Amino acid sequence: MADIDFNKYSNKKPYNNAPLAPDQYLAPFFVKDWDEVRQMDYHRDNLETWHFSGIPVLVAFTPVTEEQFPITMKIFWSKVRNHIKSLGGNPNVISYDKFLDDKSEDSSNGYNPAQVTSLESTALLGIIIDDLIREVGEKNPRYGHILQLIKEQYTKGEILDVILSEYGLKKTQAYSEIKAAQKMANELYYAD
């Protein structure tokens, strides 16, 4: 184990944001999809998307000991190969040497954890918006409904019509409700 770089991922953060014990190191693990992220309550900011031969792979990092590190890496690479194969890619393109070569090249086909696909960005943004709308709706159902209409791309006039007909408000009150809903969403989004 003398030739293994246990500190390779020391600049990363664990999936759960927990501090590492002195004898622990970080190793990557394969994340199936965003449903797993929600169900397991992974810290989203600590996830990365790596690309292998143009195929995105969602990656998180877990604390391991020196003894666990090699087997964790084998499991990770095995799952990455299976993922690539399931998407119709060639799983044989993944090897440690290829990984290092691709990492050092400025190629869009190889390893690139900074590259995030548009679909993944859109999906993550959708999850965040849905969570925000749900949270606002729990505090004020009317505001949650207004934000849902905005998300569904209703025009301001259509939103006014819905508010006027469903809640019996006057036009100026309806405008105020839209602004208040947006303000609450903004405050909740930036609150921590």
Q: Which sequence of strands runs across the widest sheet?
A: 1-3-2
Note the run of SSEs as H and E.
EHEEHHHHHH
Distance between the termini: 42 Å
Our count of helices gives 7
User: How many structurally independent domains?
Assistant: 2
Describe this structure in words.
This protein is mainly alpha-helical and 192 residues long. It folds into 2 domains: 25-115, no CATH class; 120-190, no CATH class. Helices cover 52% and strands 11% of the residues. The chain has 7 helices and 3 strands. The chain has helices spanning 34-40, 69-86, 96-104, 118-139, 141-151, 156-167, 171-190, and strands at 25-31, 48-52, 55-64. Strands 1-3-2 form a 3-stranded antiparallel beta sheet, sandwiched between helices. Strand 2 and strand 3 (55-64) form a beta hairpin. The longest helix has 22 residues, at 118-139. It is elongated, with a radius of gyration of 22 Å. The two termini are 42 Å apart.
